[in-house]
Each structure stands twice: as structure tokens, then as C-alpha cells.
Amino acid sequence: MESKKRIRPADRAGRLPMQSPGRPPVWRREHKQLFWKAISRGLSSEEAATVASVSPAVGGRWFREGGGMATVSTARHSGRYLSFGEREEIALLRAQACDVREIARRLGRASSTISRELRRNAATRSGAFQYRATTAQWHADRRAQRPKKAKLATNRALRQYVQERLAGTLKTPNGTNVPGPKTRWKGRRHGPRQDRKWAVAWSPEQISNRLPVDFPDDASMRISHEAIYQALYVQGRGALRRELVACLRTGRALRVPRARTQGRGKSFVRPEVMIGERPAEADDRAVPGHWEGDLILGLDSSAIGTLVERSTRFTILMRLPRMDGHGELPRTKHGPALAGHGAEAVRDAIAAAMAALPAQLCRSLTWDQGAEMAQHAQLRVDTGLAIYFCDPHSPWQRGTNENTNGLLRQYFPKGTDLSRHSTDDLVAVAAALNKRPRKTLGWQTPAEAFRGHLLVDQKDTVATTD
User: Fold this and answer.
1) Which CATH code fits 271-327+335-465?
2) 3 state SS of 142
């Protein structure tokens, strides 16, 4: 028997109800606005999702789809248009059988506004016009969108120019293509010590500013660098493939909001322990006992700790062996770092190195903002050593240690396993550095200068005792 197609009932005016565009999501535009405002303050995707009252998975999806960029305007709602609260009031009054004029009077709106709202933004999935606030808000948000095709999507010549300067193949002077190493796009930033895609790799700013030079009379061949970034990162723009971000200098798969980069500092670094609070006697190197420290890293998370005294350049090397359980599975959740250069291991190594020195030669220690110094407060209690931290991305603020680490790379090259060196090996390398004459010390050796301070300190101690 031939089946009959169901015909939806018509309304009073004889019109068939419009087709439903689908099911409205559980979130509204206000949720996205709260989410991106939280992202702009430096919160993570999960924290911003909590602020916006959506699940962390939804927040992470919004961030990826937007490429780290806001996909909705965060401007305040204009009173010209109905708000979600007003739509909820309309739904309640409509359920109470209030007519259009009564609803308009209570909301302080024109009756034509209410009539148009009930007609245009009604729910139609049931086959009839039923007004629900959430569905009406969804219809209004969809209708408010003004999709505009990206310039790179409509201008083929401009798109080809941008792609060639961004991801073009390298060539030798005679025109031979050089493809470089084979890489695979994983949707993430390249990992450490891995091959990256070889390309011409002009930056978007270079491409944007070169266009007027190459096309001085063609106004259509113009685009801002921000538009290129958006074409790369924002899904759905339809201009440039997302994997071309691998050709950018940073190689980031997602853009990082500026507030998030400013909030990347370690939680244990407070203003009172920054290098600006270090006493002036440490800056001018006049008083001994002020040290600089850091780690030199090797293969498979191996490391060696370095301590350098600022006035004498005397060097102490700390062996940081791997702890029991390193490389074994399963790992203890939230347990200590087992690679040997975690916060506890570094704290104990520094405390042991300073214990062999008199208190007058243990005044302060300046370190980079590494997680290995997370227990600096306990280290200060154990040793009496004042701890200070450099500003982010400012290794020059502990230049003595940086220079010494460069000298140590002659003995401990990058990419080698540093855990294979014994304590005797480190003592021998430190002794070799400490016995080299230094121009800055008047061709004295660091060992001679440091020994002189030790003798002075011992004389002062004896005189105080007498």
C-alpha cells in the first residue's frame, strides 16, 4: 500500500509553518561572550568554560574552532533589540494567554515589536508556532549574523601570492626545488628537537607590506597581516588551510591571547623575590657570597646543576642523578619529579653545596624562573640563603652563570646523556674552570680569588672569637 506523506497543518492565515533549521544548542550568545572575556583576562579554556557555565569540553572546542580568537563580539547588549530576559517574559505572559498589546505594555515595547517577535522567532519543530525563549534567542542570534567571505577566499590571485610567500617550496639559485625533511601535520605545535616544515616562510607582516611594492597600481592586491592570521587560525573562513600555520615562525596551532602570555609566570615567584629587590652589593660584585645558578640539560631529561659566585667566578657543579622509579610505569600521580632535577632534588643539592661554605659566602642566589626552584622558600629556611629570580626571558640578568654554562658545554655538549658523569667527573671539570686565569680578575684564577675570601673570613672569625 502506498504510504501517504504527512502534511503539516496550516496556520489561521492558511500559511504552512516554516521548516525548522535544527535543534538549538544549550548555550547562548551570552555564554560565548563570558567565555571570551575570561580568555582575554588570561584564564585557561577550562577555567573560562566554568565562568561561562558550560562544560570544559565545550570551552576547549570553542577555543580550537576560533583558533584562540574571539568568534563573537564582546560588546554589551544594545537596548534596541530584545534581550533574553525580555524573551523569557514574553514566553511567560504568552503562557498566561496575554494578548500582544498587553505584553507590549508590560515590557515597554511597541506592539509591532512583540507581534513580529512571536511570528519570526517561534519554535516550529512540533509543526505549530510555539514561542520559547531559548529557541527565540537562537533564531535571533542566527539572523543577526552577517557572514562575509574573506578577501583571500574571493581573490584568487591574492590568495596564491600569500600561499607562495608563506608555504612556497625552497629553491636553489638555479631553480631546483628543495623539499626539506618530511613532516606530518598533527594539528598541534611542533615538538622539541623535531623536524619542521621547510618553506619560504615569510611572516604575514612581511607579506602585507611587500604587496604595495610588487603591485603598486593594483588596489585589489592589498591585505592586512591580521586578516592573514585570521584566515589561518579561524575555522570556516575558507581561505587558507589550517596546516599552513606550521610555516609560521612560531609554528603555533592556536593563537595565544596576550593576557595569557602575561600570566605565564610561576606562581611561586612573588614581587619580593624578583631581581629588582636584590641588594646593591650583589650588583656591583664588591662583596663576595652572591651566587647565580641554573641547570644545563642533556639527553633523556638528564641535568647538571651549576652555581657561580659573582665576584670571583668560582664554579660549583651539582650532580643530579635520576631518582628511583624513573622510567617505570605506572607513575605515582602528583608525585615528585624523578628525572633528578625536580624541585626537591635541586633544593637538596643546593643545600648540600652551601653547607660546606661559611655563612659570609652564602648571601644570595639568583636563578631563572624555572619550576625546579618551586621550593625556594624551604631552601631559604634550610640555608639562610636569600633567593632572587630573574625577569621572564631575561637570562642576561645572570650573565656570569650564562657565560659559565657556555664554557661547560665544551665538556657536556647538548644532546648527550649527562647522567653518566660521576661526582668525580664534575669535581674535575669544576676544578679545571676554577684554575683558569681570568682577565676580569687581573689574571688570577677563580680558585685563588675564592681562597683569598675564605682566608679573610677565617681571620675575621678568629678575631671575633678572641
Assistant:
1) 3.30.420.10
2) helix
